[in-house]
Amino acid sequence: MTAAVAPTVEQVGALLGLRPRPHTVAELDRVVRAGLPYASMRRVEKHFGLPLQPQVRRFIGSRSTLERREVAGRLSRAESERLARLAGLSGLAEFVWGSAALAQQFLGAPHPQLESRTPLEAAESEIGARQVERLLWSIEHGLPA
Question: Cβ atoms within 10 A of the Cβ of 55, count?
Answer without folding.
Answer: 17
